[in-house]
Amino acid sequence: MSEKPAGADMPEETVGSQVSPMSQGPSMSDMSSMSSMSAVWQSSPPGSIYDYIRVASFALGPDGRIAQWSERAAELLGLTASQAIGKDPVEAFVPPEYQETGQRAVADILDGREWTGLVPYRNPRTPSGHGIAEVYVMPAQDEHGKRAALCIAVDVSALRGLETDLASSQAVFGQSPLGFFLFGTDLRILRVNERFAKVFGRPTEEYRGTTPHDLLPRGEADRLAAALRQVLDSGQSLTDMPIVGQAPGSPDRRRWSVSLYRLHSGSGRPIGVAGLATDVTGRRRAEQEAAGVRRNLALLNEAGARIGTSLDLETTARELLDVAVPQFCDLASVDLYQGLLSGDETPPGLADGSAELRRVAFASAVSDGPVAFGDICRVNTVEDPKPIQVGEVHRYPFNSLCAHALRTAQVRVVPGRDGSEALEFGAMLQSTLVVPMVARDTVVGLAQFSRTKGSEPFGERDRALAVELAARAAVSIDNARLYRREHERALILQRSLLPPGDPEAAGLDIACRYLPGNAATEVGGDWFDVIELPGHRTALVVGDVMGRGLRAAVAMGELRTAVRTLALLDLEPAEVLSALDEIARGLGTPGGSHAGARPGSRALGRDGKAADDSSDLTEVYLATCVYAVYDPVTRRCTFANAGHPPPVLVERGEDALLMEVPPGLPLGVGGEPFEEIEVELPDGALLALYTDGLVESRDHTLDEGLQALRAALDTRDGADGGNAAAGSLEDVCDHVLSTLDTHHGEDDIALLMARVQGLSADSVGDWHLPSAPQSVGRARELAREQLESWGLDDLVDTTELLVSELVTNALRYGEGEIRLRLLLDRTLVCEVWDGGLVQPRRRRARDTDEGGRGLQLVGLLSAGWGSRRTPLGKTVWFELALPDGQASGPDSVEALLSLW
């Protein structure tokens, strides 16, 4: 069958017009039409639906027999052309049980009627041995004009499978919640589903023939077109390709994730590119939010680790900025109230935000020096645009945003200033967060965080993060402020509890050291004291309250006060410790009561629990103490110990020895009496009293520490080549502290060292007088002679008068022999002994009384007077200050007249 050339059936005029010499050449439309026609007639492999179903054809002649048989018919029906041509089609491939029906159908076809129906046929390739074909019969005529038929047959099973596949594909394509699209090989859309059409706001049919450039911005469209071409050419799928654009009618930028894959026909020929588009804008926003949250959490974690490592205010402010810049902002500053920095509790103007502030820290990732970023709120910024320097004191005006933030404790946002001037860095800022620093409902300062233009603007999460950062720093700053205040108070307390300066004592050289174990508060429970007693005697005390810190220091202060009070009563050392033990036991119970408690037990509260709350051991007031009284006249020292390490005695030219003082129980335990021991101390001997922090630590035992202390005192050479007893007392203290391990920080250390220098015999006058009236005159004579020998003529009259009063009282109210003693050291002391036990009592005599004014006169003319019990009676004494040549003492005549 020959083919006609194109245009052969066209009218002559039409054909001739295409080649007329008058033509100027084909138009653009003609060229496009010619190109399309050329493409249509190009040879190409079968495709489309015929790749999925095999269509067979054959023809019937006028006699109803097969006249033509195609190769597809042979494949479908299993008969070759030689087996089929000339045969009755019904007999040829229809099963016998269906042949009668088939014969009637063929007869109808040959009568000139079209027929379509299902025809069973023999098919040995199937398990049942037969199949069903859908046959379409079209009436035809042969070359002689006789009736014939052209038949087309399709296997029903293939057709039904195709219908099922199409229905499934339509369901997936139409009902998918994802945007589904199909591009042809020319990269134009062939089909989209409703979900895809809804995103871009057009009807589904309007997308046919559109390109990526009709839907997306140029840059994104070029990327998508290139990806389509790559998938079409290579056949490799592409997943999760990000595409950014705007949906029609929406100003918001959207983000899609696109996956592409190539489609093939049944013969394997590429027929286009299919794709799925998922709107991931929300997911992307959630990812960004999650990333922001993770970043903020990391920043807060870093802030927790880095802010507050120091109790210094400026250091804490710098730590805040080290965390914030550049991770959170581009530049930042911290202002603190000047009053808080100077230690004021309530700085003036704090309530209205106009108080003075000092800039304590500044940090920037975009400039080398301070800039006027949040300082637009500062007073006189217009007249004085210079930025605030670190350390500068300034104010914010009442109506400024910064002052408002300070007043209300609310975050304020300062927008960036517009302008192209390069002189002010503030014009480059996008915005500033002004954040008050609040701790314990108190505003302590102001933090400012700024971002430059081009950075992401501050959001609500950023504001919350800024508040959290400022709050953490504020708490640390307030803690530092409170620490400084408490530290100052603790130092005042500590200084008030320890002896001021270098203590002085008659017949003793004193040197002392105190090292707190707690470097943070510099206070503890160790103490020492030097107490002057009547008769130029001196009490040396060293004690240690168990526990640390301020509570131990307060307990120590109570015990130290009690010791001084008991010492002034001139009790024996053992009696002092017994009374002090009672006081210590009362400190740990409610109201100080401990009546009825068993020795060593804790008092119980009303609820039956330990009154000291056994869960808090700092409430149990236990202490150790050593108490010694030295008499420079007799060179004898009496010791009593309450669980304290023993004193160390170093005599000139001898080894250091631990004194065998009975240890006793600690104060507060109770139940056992204290013993005392009296030791004679030669002149030049060195006595060391200390607390256990000097000789005991976790690195060595107490015995090792005591041995090290003895060794330090033994090997310290003095100026004369002797041992420690001959060296400078201050040098001895320094040597002991430097030799021993005194930097362990585990306990306080107190060290009291005394070198014995007793009163010489020339400084003592001691006489015994009989209990007779003549002893009064004799006492006056002895006193005058002794004072004249000492060169104290200015004190003779007063001393005679007071000695006369005391001896007279001893004769009138005392018993037995009278003893008179005068002692000269830094003051003049007169003592009168008698055997009576009745203590003198000062009273105010009435105008009509003839007596009762003696002790009043003693009190008026002396620097101090008193009495104390002795084993054999009592002693009454008075003390006179030595004349210094500048002021005279009280006038005895005026004192006598003042009594009336």
From TrEMBL:
This is PAS/PAC sensor protein. PANTHER family: STAGE II SPORULATION PROTEIN E, STAGE II SPORULATION PROTEIN E-RELATED. It holds the Pfam family HATPase_c_2. The keyword Ligase does not apply. GO terms for molecular function: phosphatase activity. Residues 1-31, 588-612 are annotated as: Disordered. Residues 20-31 have a biased composition (Low complexity). Residues 58-113, 180-235 form the PAS domain. Keywords: Hydrolase.
